[in-house]
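Thread: "does anyone have the structure for this chain?"

Original post by V.I.:
We have the sequence but no experimental structure in hand. Need at least a predicted one for the grant figures.
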Amino acid sequence: MGVRPFPANPQITAWDNLPGYCWAFPGQLAYSTAAVLLGICCLAFRVKMTGYPGQTYLWLVLLALVPTLLGHTLFNWTLKYLPAYIIGISLLGEPIGSTMLAYFVFREIPATFTFVGGAMVLGGLYMLAREQRAVKMVR
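Reply from O.Q.:
Generated one for you, tokens below.
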């Protein structure tokens, strides 16, 4: 998860008017650094990076664009609107979405404990949502 590029003092609000690319920059810097370091490691350990079918490269590009650049950047952007603890807890829902995708796309049947864990995570997310609704009604 990215770091909010703002001062810790909540009284300082001038930063809230920054354009969207300022929110994305810390994440893009982290993604680029990770890509360069991964490339260096692949070269150092002589990992085969060429010779795969075109569809493999297409899936790799889509994996880089959709969940990483789009998904994680959106989580960083939502820090402007939601407290960090809500965003952090909502990340627990990612494996549930991945499990559902694996079922519908690859016809993978999840193990029993996957359902148990998913139910526990959904229960926790529900309790958070219910508590947030109660806090808003009190204010």
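V.I.: this helps a lot. The chain has one domain: 14-138.
O.Q.: and Residues 112-138 form the longest helix (27 residues).
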